[in-house]
Amino acid sequence: MRTKFVRPEIGSGGDGHTFPGAAYPFGLVQPSPDTGREGYRYCAGYRYEDDRILGFSQTHLSGTGCGDLGDVRIMPFAGEPSPGVSSAFRKETQTCAPGYYAVTLDDCDVRVEATAAAHTAVYRFTGAGSKAMRLLLDCQWGIGGKVLAKTILSSDVRAQGRRIVSGTNVRKHWVERRYSFVIECNRDFEEPITLEPLSPDEKAPRMVLQFVAGDEPLVIKIGYSLVDEDGARRNMDAECPGFDFDAVRAAADVEWERQLARMDAEGTDDEKTNFYSALYRLLIQPANIADVDGRYRGADGEVHVAPGGRYYSTLSLWDTFRAAHPLHTLISSEMGDDFVETMLEHQKAAGFLPIWTLMGRDNQCMIGTHSVPVIVDWFLKTEAISRPTAPGGADAASRHARDRAFWEAAFAAIKDSLTNLHKGRILEDWPALDKYGYYPNDIVTSESVSRLLECCYDDWCAARMAERLGFADDAAFFLKRSRNWRNVVDPETHFVRGRDTKGNWTTPFNPLALGRNAGTGSDFTEGNAWQWTWHVLHEPEALIEAVGGKDVAGERLCRLFTLEADESETGTCDDVTGLMGQYCHGNEPSHHVIYLLRYADRTARQAELVRDVFEKFYVNRPDGLCGNDDCGQMSAWYLFSAMGFYPMNPASGEYVLGAPQLPKVVMRVTRDEGRETSCGVKTFTVIAKNLSAENKYVKSVTLNGVPLEGFTIRHEDILNGGELVFEMKS
Q1: CA nearest 415: which of 457, 346, 465?
Q2: Are 720 and 706 in contact (CB under 8 A)?
Q3: Residues 6 or more apart from 643 whose CB is under 8 A from it?
Q4: Which of 39, 85, 126, 455 has its Cα between 20 and 30 A from that of 367?
Q5: What does the buried/exposed string (b/e) look like for 271-297 if buried means 16 or more CB atoms within 10 Å of the residue's CB?
Q6: CB–CB of 178/170 below 8 Å?
Q7: Cα separation, 709 vs 348, whole angstroms
Q8: What is the pTM (predicted TM-score) of this model?
Q9: Inter-axis angle of helices 371-386 and 404-419, to 10 degrees?
Q10: Burial of 465 (0-12, 13-18, 19+ CB in 10 A)
Q11: How many CB atoms sit inside 10 A of residue 426's CB?
Q12: Which residues are CB-contacts of 338 (< 8 A; sequence separation ≥ 6)?
């Protein structure tokens, strides 16, 4: 069983921002304990270092740098009713597993167990207090927001009889969203006690449910929907028709095992724990926010029906386009059409393609339009498997290959999002970009260089799709604009550097100074010039030449990993973590840089650095992640790098070789929506012969027995199945 190697609490300490509670693959709910709710430390509502639980809420974000969700807090307690009830707990009583969480609350001697289906959280309470238990139901609760009282904009919550409470809240923090729930209990409760609000601004109730005595454990199930209460009830009835907690837990375990079976790893137990825990974190999100009948609430706040019955959100695209989505394309390709359709439906509702979506709404918290590389990558890779010359012939196509009109419409959405200004779009200025060839920092006063570099990559992806579709003029326009990164490479310092409308370089210039986000006045996003200079994913050879050629660039790249600086030189930024010199593994713009070393002929140094990252920044303990997991991107880097290759340019159709870290990994690559057909599921096996602590360098590589020329493999090589063998040496 692969599930036995998953340790959900990895990342719940330190900067990982993960949660230890129950989750269902790509599910809408994640019942989990909250030990805090405010500030950067509590983006997921929990810190492993804490020793008191404040309650259990039903929705959580995994590994983000901003906090939200934490809907509908429940908490068993003893003593007088109070909105501030909490309990001490001991870590040795805590059990964390895929789809299951349990802990003993010392203050009321209650054993709390939680499990999850896709839209439904289920709890079981046992112990001395279970025969006549009190339960706090806090509908005002939520993670994030400095003033809790003002986050709920409206609320309608009511008891229905003696076993059901249902309601609908509208909450505004990272996004404004509406959610509905139905709570059903297996035991009657007395007339609810409504507590006095803590502030006149509060809109949602806190109530205490006093349950009648009974011999059986108290079981509570909570159905959830972003559409309405009827949807929450239908979701719950479809997934959990009774009160069989163990059956729901078993179903979650079966589904997790099925999902984890997409990859197999060999190694020590510690290595397998790191591997399968990373795969688990990847598969928590994106979340399918559509109800069981396919209805969802879109970016316009209206109710729609998803074309394929599924609609995905929690799209942390600034992070996940780099490796998480490319890995989904390989091992979860049955979801690719849904991802693309979700993004196109979002564009119809919002006017532009998604930037960073949460519960169907766009928070636009990051830069770039990185739904573009996800769409283009899927278009190019599915085209490769649906050509008549591909193994399996024309029958290998899934619904993505239905007609050219679909992809022309997709490109039209891309072109519109990358060239036209839209109401509500806050972070791009296409007229300035087209006039100057860069973002002048006296017009775009924050993140000007980082925004340009991210836009260049989106433009390159758009150019590839236009070229493949035969739109020559569009291809030429986007290709030209994708090369604008050259306009911010300072030929004197060989760093990327901000410029104003007159072409003047930012002065004074400190390449170590860290920028943060919009409104901070820096040319860089969550990083500095040392880190962002290498952010040209689509033209690595040209970048190497622009910063001085292989020798100069190679030395500069190697120095990146050793250059130390203190806060007096750099300043601070919460997201800049996992530092080796100025290389920042805890934040995504650095994730490809180790693989860029190949283009500078620094192969041995690359192997050393991959090993260093594994040993320092992916450790089997609660604080074992060096930075926010960011919806699976940190985990995807680990999974690819464990196999010895990485999608440095995700939409290129190529993977750059590195140095494998496990003796054997088998990846089940899916085609034709994952079904077993003549072109269905194949295995791609990676073997690292003679791998050891000393033998971390690559001596030779063969693909299906043939020596590999160069340092890349193609997407088709993996899809066709086979064996990639690394011969390792000291």
Answers
A1: 465
A2: no
A3: 660, 662, 665, 667, 686, 724
A4: 39
A5: bbbbbbbbbbbbbbbbbbbbbbeebbb
A6: yes
A7: 45
A8: 0.96
A9: 160
A10: buried
A11: 9
A12: 288, 306, 308, 310, 311, 312
**The two structure tokens encoding residue 253:** 């375990």
Please answer whether residues 8 and 20 qualify as being in contact, where contact means their C-beta atoms are separated by less than 8 angstroms.
yes
Banded pLDDT at 400 (limits 50, 70, 90)? very low
Name the residue with tokens 């006296």: 442
Specify the 3-state DSSP secondary structure of 294.
Answer: coil
Q: What spatial distance separates the first Cα and last Cα of the chain, rounded to whole Å? A: 34
Q: Alpha carbon 443 to chain centroid distance?
A: 32
Domains, the chain, with CATH or none: 2-260 (2.70.98.10), 429-617 (1.20.1610.10)
Residue 447 has pLDDT above 70, yes or no: yes
- Quote the CA–CA distance of 395 and 153 in Å, as a whole number: 51
Element (DSSP H or E) covering residue 531 = helix 529-532
Token pair belonging to 556: 């500069």
Q: Is the pLDDT assigned to residue 451 strictly greater than 70?
A: yes
Cα–Cα–Cα angle for 627, 632, 634, nearest 5°? 40
Count CB-CB contacts under 10 A for residue 592: 22
Q: What is the DSSP letter of 652?
A: G
Q: What is the Cβ-side half-sphere exposure of residue 676, based on CA atoms within 13 angstroms?
A: 0
The Cβ of residue 168 has, within 10 Å, a number of other Cβ atoms equal to 18
* Omega prior to 508 cis, within 30 of 0: yes
The gap from C-alpha 86 to its chain's centroid, in whole angstroms, comes to: 30
- CB crowding 640-659: b at 16 or more within 10 Å, else e: bbbbbbbbbbbbbbbbbbbb
DSSP code of residue 626: S
* Mean predicted confidence (pLDDT) in 596-619: 98
Alpha carbon distances (Å) from 154 to 177, 203, 309: 11, 6, 29
Tokens read off for 618? 């992916």
> Do residues 385 and 681 make contact, with C-beta atoms less than 8 angstroms apart?
no
CB of 42 closer than 8 Å to CB of 53: no
CB 53 within 8 A of CB 89: yes
Burial of 472 by CB count in 10 Å (0-12 exposed, 13-18 middle, 19+ buried)?
exposed
Can you give the pLDDT at residue 212? 84
| Residue 678: alpha-carbon gap to chain centroid | 32
536 closest CA partner among 441, 649, 657, 370: 649
Q: In angstroms, what is the C-alpha Rg of the chain?
A: 26
The dihedral of CA 433, 560, 271, 702: what is its sign? positive
